[in-house]
Amino acid sequence: MIVRTLAMAGALSLAAVGAQAEIKVGMITTLSGGGAGLGIDVRDGFMLALEQSGRTDVTVVIEDDQQKPDIAVQLSDKMIQSEKVDVMTGIIWSNLAMAVVPGAVAQGKFYLSPNAGPSALAGQGCHPNYFNVAWQNDNLHEAAGAYANDAGYKNSFILAPNYPAGQDALTGYKRFFKGDLAGEIYTQLGQTDYAAEIAQIRASGADSVFFFLPGGMGISFLKQYADSGVGLPVVGPAFSFDQGILQAVGDAALGVVNTSQWSKDIDNPANVAFVASFQEKYGRLPSLYASQGFDTANLLLSALEVAEPSDADAFREALRAADFDSTRGDFAFGANHHPIQDIYVREVIKEGDIYTNKIIGVALKDHVDAYVGECKM
Amino acid sequence: MRAETLLNACVLLALAAVPLWAWVADEPFTITLATRLAILALAGVGLNLALGLGGLVSLGHAVFFGIGGYAMGVLASHAQSYTPLTDWPVLIEGTKSMPVIWLVAMGASGLAALAIGALSLRTSGVYFIMITLAFGQMFYYFAISWPAYGGEDGLSIYVRNGFPGLNTLDPIQFFALCYAILALALWAMARLMRSAFGLALVAARQNAARVEAVGIAPYRLRLVAFVLSGMITGLAGALFADLNRFVSPVMFSWQTSGEIIVFVILGGVARLYGPVVGAAVFVLLEHFLGGLSEFWHIWLGAVLLGVVLFARGGIIGLVVGREVRRD
Amino acid sequence: MSLILFIEQMLNGLQFGVMLFLMAAGLTLIFGVMGLINLAHGSLYMIGAFAAAWVAGLTGSFVLALIAALAAAAAAGALVEVVVIRRLYARDHLDQVLATFALILMFSEGTRWVFGSFPLFLEIPPYLSGPVRLPGGIQYPLYRLAIIVAGLIVAAGLFALIARTRIGIQIRAGEADREMIGALGVNIAALYTVVFALGAALAGLAGALIGAIQSVQVGMGEPVLILAFVVIVIGGIGSIKGALVGALLVGLTDTMGRFLLPVAFAQVMAPAAATAVGSALASMAIYILMALVLIFRPRGLYGVA
Amino acid sequence: MTEVLLDIRGITKRFGAVTACEEVSLTLRRGEIHALIGPNGAGKSTLIGQIAGSLRPDAGSVWFDGHDVTALDTAARARAGLARTFQISSLAMEMTVLQNAVLGALGARGRVMRFFRDVMRDSALRAVAREALDRVGLWDVAAHRVGDLSHGQRRQLEVAVALTQAPKAFLMDEPMAGLGAEGSARMTRFLDGLRQHAPILLVEHDMDAVFALADRVSVLVYGRVIATGAPDAIRRDARVREAYLGDEALP
């Protein structure tokens, strides 16, 4: 699916402006299947920023990876070999990013990650052409650990699915949390029933629960946890509390604390304008994924003001400067091209009929990820 | 029979001609698509031996596809990081050489097929379908939760493995390699279908009691067929991993098993070229329908359903009629 | 580990098993009577959950939502049976697997088309929410108890239906000899449609009941489907009794495996490694159980030879 | 070399409470046709299953050519030289007549695990197959699909496949079933000549054929052999007449 409207507008203006090279962006993201909500938000945020910029010379080629790594690799080959894109972006899942990004940057393409931030790409596997605009995977979990300290929790029960991102999540939490662990459980990926885990939480004597269960797993856990009457305070990363998921969790999420680098009530002009325009255009509140898509596009646009991707060194410098108005306020890249940013603590509230998040504090200020030292770039 | 031979020749020629054209026209992605097609067809050729000839409906062939993929991933990742797989009792180093990887892939998937087959072949019918599915799920969850080789993230191999005398990074050369292997596998299958083993295997599918009554044990026939089938699918897995320069547990998922079955049935069960035609149609549908609509799975489902309901004998059967070769 | 925790986990296993029985009963009934292997059974589960969430959103009534789930799944089942499935009875299992695999694709993406990509909301009704205190001091969610009761009622009803009613007699006759019931003057086409709709309604009910404590989303049916297949294969395909025993066995194995295996491994290795290895093995446990059952009883526990 | 080729010693088979076969003993001698008769439900199928190897007896043993074969499966007994024909034609229906016959020859020769050579061009196997098909008169239709054959031709092919196995003994389950008068007569003549080749244990409902062919007859009733003897003796046996409910059934 190629977004031709912009391309056509670009063609029309070509005569007026002269020999301005067209920029081609390849977006591989998840648009079908159970995880489609995230990809759609990233895409919509990205396209909104592009539309607002008024730039007519940027074409975006969008393809659906179906959340399958081999499809993503095939699409990446297509983008590079057939579409001959200049810049790539869009991947939601870490395992897909690991499949696509090393190959793409090795072939000289720029990759801007709007969501996934696996540690391998932040540390030893970092690359000059790879920029992460969202977060390193551990960041929000680390912030949750820091928050747990601030909240005075001494004994946490922690759980995550048994796969690398889940293992990273618990590692990230433990890296900052100073209390004891009442229990540590790996659940099955895609698990929908958490009765056994909740019973263990109840019996463990913990004073708090940290969980990382993205997507539908988080919905199931929160509903069952609320109904179980265990009632211990819960903290988690924003992935189980984004705008798309909250409506499906309902009251069970109210009051739950979560950590995020973005929230719709961050008070800066860029964010206020983004939230209003996103809501106007798509008729729903933006999620953090939408904000990441929006920021990714604005980063790209800011660099394009300075240099063409064909001039790789200049373009890379322009990206590194990160000279754009982020929805998160201050935004800068660390040495490994991952964000240095504040991570907020949010609480789930109800505004009218809509469940959403409100900032209640800052967990980590100007946070740098743990892998920057391993990056030799 | 004549019509099918002619069709087969056309399919094989087209599969060679399109990438050659793409090479001349500088459309490397078309070559990549054709390579993908050839590899998936090879996986289907493997399954066709068990399913088409042997009547063994395996919903667990992703196991062998995945083992082949991980054979490549594990060996190449060790070679990439210059760490041995093990130094006890003997030193085993990783490798970036395709022929070695292929041998390991076929050996490992053959062993797995021997173990799974020996147990599963005690059952039949729906039970066989389900027990192979169960083995598939075991491998899938194991691969996801075993952290040593990337777990669910999978393993990235940054540079494609090498083959003596070829530059495998060049799409057309890698395609040629995969095409040659597919052609070789098809030739071997054609021989096998006419061999003593093939005769007995097909007879055992049509009437197991008859085969037993003439003194041939169907269990052994089926086990051998299952092992050979697993080895071919395992080889396809290794090539698939090399095409993507990446392996992940998705290769073990039951959807992968389902897709390999789809290739075989879409083309025509027990037809020599059934998996090739089936994989071709699947890859083309995926490519073009995916571009038409976000909801392209609906149309893919409709096409599959149409083939099952109205085109028995698959696409080849539709083109050349239902008669199967005999002499 | 306390006894209370152990009993609570047994209850959880029981509840999970009862849930699986609702799915597996329809599947095994359809296989027993029509000889059909239906991969799209999970889609009917999903349809039940979506119908329930939609109606609950409109009316706010959980009872209406359950009725809607039953009706929608039965209607979808009957429609699919008439349009597609009845052409498959005479086919081999391979064709059935492929055709119903195609139906999964169409149902999943069709649902996404209608309801969008985001999960839907369905909640436990207030009168069933929260925990209750059981004898012995166990705190257990009322809703899960309600599921156990509902499932057992359905199981009893199903056994009574098959043992006592006219349609039950026809179903048993159909399992014994398919040509025979035609000769007895039973309208086979209608009987098959009814049985298929009944199986679909059970799946839809399971989807709605579970939807209230899980995520109502596209693709929710497939994991349950595979578990339901494991259940009926362990129990012996076609046997309702086998489905019940198999469901409880799988429910308990899965729950207790997840609970006990990490604890067991912690005795011999470091806690972090133990939980990783234990969970990995726990996720394979039911498949190992199934393989073991089939190796020793190739037609399941209650299957006919 | 013993006179007795197949020796069934007191085999018993129970299915739950039902005893399908109780202490049955039978012998098949070289050069003879031994017919096994009995009313429906007498347990003939169960007995054949145990002789051929598809059922295991609960007690007793089966000896073939001087060896105890009780523990061997069907395929192993076939390789030992016991060729079987089925009551309901059991052939590879999608294959040709010649392929079915070659399959039989292949089973007898062994070396099935050959993956590359074209089996239909194996002249030794073809010769065996051709000879067998010639003998039953099916060579003309060798290239036909078995599914397209008439019922009678399939019965002949059953016998031809057994012939390709060059067996030491035949175990034939109602070879006349559904053949009609003329077909039965032709099959009777054919089997008559076959006994020189190898002895036949013949299970048959067609009493004309039985009494025309058999050297000895055994009568199975309710899972027991109630009488064994020459056809004339059997014809006169009071218990046999009773078992067959009157005189009409026996000529």
Descriptive notes:
Chain A has 377 residues and is α/β, with parallel strands linked by helices. Chain A folds into two domains: 4-116 and 267-327, Rossmann fold (3-Layer(aba) Sandwich), CATH 3.40.50.2300; 139-261 and 343-374, Rossmann fold (3-Layer(aba) Sandwich). Helices cover 43% and strands 21% of the residues of chain A. Chain A has helices spanning 4-17, 36-53, 69-83, 94-106, 119-122, 139-150, 164-176, 195-204, 216-228, 243-249, 269-282, 288-306, 312-321, and strands spanning 23-29, 58-64, 87-89, 110-113, 130-132, 155-161, 180-187, 208-211, 234-237, 257-260, 332-333, 339-351, 354-367. In chain A, a hairpin with a 5-residue loop joins strand 11 (332-333) and strand 12 (339-351). The two termini of chain A are 36 Å apart. Residues 1-19 of chain A have low confidence and may be disordered. Chain B has one domain: ABC transporter involved in vitamin B12 uptake, BtuC (Orthogonal Bundle), CATH 1.10.3470. Chain B has 13 helices and two strands, in the order H-H-H-H-H-E-H-H-H-H-E-H-H-H-H. The relative contact order of chain B is 0.19. The mean pLDDT of chain B is 90. Chain C has one domain: ABC transporter involved in vitamin B12 uptake, BtuC, CATH 1.10.3470. Chain C contains eleven helices and two strands; from the N terminus they run ααααββααααααα. Chain C has helices at residues 3-34, 41-59, 62-83, 93-115, 142-164, 166-176, 178-183, 188-211, 221-235, 240-266, 271-296; strands at 131-134, 138-141. In chain C, strand 1 (131-134) and strand 2 form a beta hairpin. In chain C, strands 1-2 form a two-stranded antiparallel sheet. With 305 residues, chain C is mainly alpha-helical. The longest helix of chain D is centred in the C-terminal third of the chain and has 15 residues, at 180-194. In chain D, helix 3 (97-109) packs across helix 4 and helix 3 (97-109) packs parallel to helix 5 (151-164). With 251 residues, chain D is an alpha/beta fold. Chain D has two domains: 4-81 and 167-243, P-loop containing nucleotide triphosphate hydrolases (Rossmann fold, 3-Layer(aba) Sandwich), CATH 3.40.50; 95-154, no CATH class. The chains are: A alpha/beta (377), B mainly alpha (327), C mainly alpha (305), D alpha/beta (251). The interface between A and C is large, with 41 and 51 residues.
